[in-house]
Design a protein that fits this description.
Distance between the termini: 20 Å
Oligomer: single chain
Number of domains: 2
Order of helices and strands: HHHHHHHHH
Strand content: under 5%
Shape: globular
Largest sheet: none
Helix content: over 70%
């Protein structure tokens, strides 16, 4: 469940919500930057979620802020994400390989362990990356705050922006299912995640059709995330094929392709259940 502070609140205009959300994001980023407690991976996960929510907010208010400011903030957020990407990839690749290897008939292959990058088992390095990413996130916030908003454009309508996010995700999905290319599925994933975060932002207490839409969109973006994890894992194995036994790499890639095929069927079915808002 999304924290109530991250959504448009009753009686609040988009302009008021934007100013408040900037403060909420800043407070949360400061908290996460200083959070070096026992559960560092969870703090990093929460920081990644914060970046995604802020990206969705920037897209939502795009008509009301200068294009150059949006571009600068997005570039700063991209750099923040890249600092955390390797740690995230190491975790999901290990998890993905463990899942696909369960279906391998070869007991020896099942015992092969994906170690990931040893550097990302270094707690001090992880903590430094976390603080650096939080610092860049706060820089992106500052870039938006300093610019102010456009005076020649109205604030966006939540219902219209939600409809636009839905149409963009639907179009990306149709393209991905038609072309069956990994990069098209990646684009679909990004637009579906944006739709989900815009739903979170604009629907503080969804009911009926909107609640169903949010539930199905969440399921769809997670399955598309699983598909992307297979792509990332396969790319890693091909680049590092000399690191692992040839039989392990060959069997892993075969099972990853089977999983991708299964996931394509799943997301096709889920996409039909995500109806227009």
């Amino acid at each position: 469940m999304v924290p109530f502070s991250f959504v448009l609140q009753p009686g609040e205009s988009p302009e008021q919500a934007f100013a408040r959300l900037l403060r909420v994001f800043a407070w949360e980023a400061h908290r996460l930057r200083n959070d070096s407690g026992k559960d560092l991976p969870e703090a990093i996960h929460q920081l990644r979620l914060l970046i995604k929510r802020f990206r969705a907010l920037l897209w939502f208010v795009r008509p009301s802020i200068p294009k150059l400011v949006e571009a600068r903030a997005k570039d700063t957020l991209r750099k923040a994400s890249l600092l955390l990407a390797a740690q995230r990839d190491a975790m999901v690749m290990r998890k993905t390989l463990e899942e696909v290897m369960r279906k391998s008939p070869d007991r020896v292959l099942q015992q092969e362990a994906f170690s990931g990058d040893p550097a990302f088992r270094d707690r001090k390095k992880l903590s430094r990356l976390q603080r650096a990413a939080a610092k860049k996130f706060l820089r992106a916030l500052q870039q938006v705050r300093q610019s102010g908003v456009r005076t020649d454009a109205p604030w966006p309508s939540p219902s219209e922006r939600l409809e636009q996010a839905f149409r963009a995700a639907k179009k990306a999905g149709e393209k991905a299912l038609r072309k069956k290319k990994d990069n098209a599925f990646h684009d679909w994933r990004k637009k579906t995640k944006r739709l989900f975060y815009v739903l979170e932002l604009t629907q503080p207490a969804p009911k009926g059709r909107l609640a169903r839409m949010m539930e199905q969109t969440d399921k769809l973006q997670k399955k598309l995330g699983d598909y992307h994890d297979c792509v990332v894992t396969g790319t890693y194995l091909r680049k590092r094929k000399k690191t692992f036994p040839r039989s392990f790499t060959r069997e892993s890639l075969h099972l990853l392709e089977k999983r991708k095929h299964h996931l394509r069927k799943k997301v096709r079915k889920l996409a039909r259940s995500v109806k227009s808002p």
